[in-house]
Write a structure and sequence with these properties.
Elements lengths: L2 H15 L2 E7 L13 H12 L4 E7 L7 H10 L4 E6 L2 E2 L2 H7 L3 E4 L4 E2 L5 E2 L6 E2 L2 E5 L2 E2 H13 L6 H14 L2 H23 L7 H11 L12 H6 L5 E2 L3 H17 L8 H4 L6 E12 L4 E12 L10 E12 L2
Parallel strand pairs: 1-2, 2-3, 3-5, 4-6, 5-11
Antiparallel strand pairs: 1-12, 7-10, 8-9, 12-13, 13-14
Helix pairs in contact: 1-10, 2-3, 3-4, 7-8
Length: 332
């Protein structure tokens, strides 16, 4: 299905929802994925200018996550053009995608829709070295650090200042103090961002519910890859989640399947397979993400070259891949 056919689906979703729809799809194709990132803000601005102010805007979203600061900027931009923002989740909206949902008046989740915890892992120059690759640094999960200290108190029963100081000293021996400082900053940051996003649309009298949602999405979920279904999102997390009509459910899923096929998410990006037996090099172009509305289409496109190794070393890949350019491109 091309854009012409997809426009029909978009327009049908808009009619069903009585809203303007912008699709934001970050691909998770193996070896060629994209993530939520600040460079998409300018892209959204172009779409919003083309659409103009609307009573309701729906963000059709698929993502595995990305930069945690981008949702705050993007939600505020969207709200410059509408008083009522909804997010449509046909499948995955994890991590930074869940943060985007926190800034919406309503989250419409399909049967397969899933959100995720908002507990980031942080990495900087002071993080522990990766034993398998000393040049690399291991990410440190914010919630893992707090869970370690909670375990000392709740399970080991350590309560005295001396015992807790000793436990913290053991942690500092393995993780640089500046890395732990960065963990604390992100611990505070993610809670602050979640709080501000929820307060954009929740009444001041529901501050208790706001804090409960934040705890449910951080310390009360015990695995970063925990998948939150729409039932759990509504009943346990306490988010404003609604169930689509049968017609809308069908339209959302058909739209998702089209993007999945367009971005070849089920086919790993295999550079060696692209070279024909008689070829030694070729240029390639592949799409890794899409922002689409009725008036506009932008794609995140990778351009590069693939070169066959004349004498490949044992254990080394048989081809070299060089990315020449990657970024958003206006297609319509």
């Amino acid at each position: 299905m091309g854009r012409a056919e997809r426009l029909t689906l978009l327009q049908q979703v808009e009619e069903e929802r009585r809203s303007a729809v912008i699709c934001y799809f970050t691909g998770d194709r193996e070896n060629l994925g994209t993530r939520v990132a600040p460079d998409v803000i300018r892209v959204f601005y172009r779409h919003l200018l083309a659409l103009g102010p609307r009573p309701r805007i729906d963000l059709f979203l698929y993502t595995r996550g990305g930069d945690v600061l981008t949702p705050w900027r993007l939600v505020n931009l969207l709200r410059e053009f509408t008083p009522y923002l909804s997010v449509l989740v046909p499948f995955r909206a994890a991590s930074a995608g869940t943060l985007l949902c926190l800034g919406a008046n309503e989250v419409v989740m399909g049967r397969l829709g899933e959100l995720g915890p908002i507990d980031p892992s942080v990495a900087n120059a002071f993080n522990p070295e990766d034993p398998a690759n000393p040049v690399a640094r291991l990410p440190v999960s914010v919630e893992d650090v707090t869970a370690y200290l909670a375990m000392a108190r709740e399970i080991a029963g350590l309560e005295s200042e001396g015992s807790l100081a000793a436990i913290f000293g053991r942690l500092v021996d393995r993780v640089h103090p500046l890395a732990l400082g960065n963990v604390h900053r992100n611990y505070a940051l993610i809670r602050s961002l979640a709080r501000k996003l929820l307060q954009l649309h929740m009444p001041a009298g529901e501050q208790g519910r706001v804090e409960d949602i934040i705890k449910n999405l951080t310390e009360r979920l015990y695995a970063h890859n925990h998948m939150i279904s729409r039932r759990e999102a509504r009943q346990d997390i306490k988010l404003q989640v609604t169930q689509p009509s049968d017609r809308l459910e069908d339209l959302m899923w058909r739209l998702y399947l089209d993007y999945e096929a367009d971005l070849k998410l089920l086919e790993p990006f295999n550079p060696a397979a692209l070279l024909k037996p008689q070829e030694y090099s070729l240029e390639f172009e592949a799409t890794g993400g899409i922002v689409e509305s009725v008036p506009c289409l932008d794609a995140f496109i990778f351009n590069g070259t693939i070169t066959r190794e004349s004498q490949p070393r044992e254990g080394a890949p048989p081809v070299n891949v060089t990315f020449i350019r990657q970024g958003w491109r206006q297609l319509v």
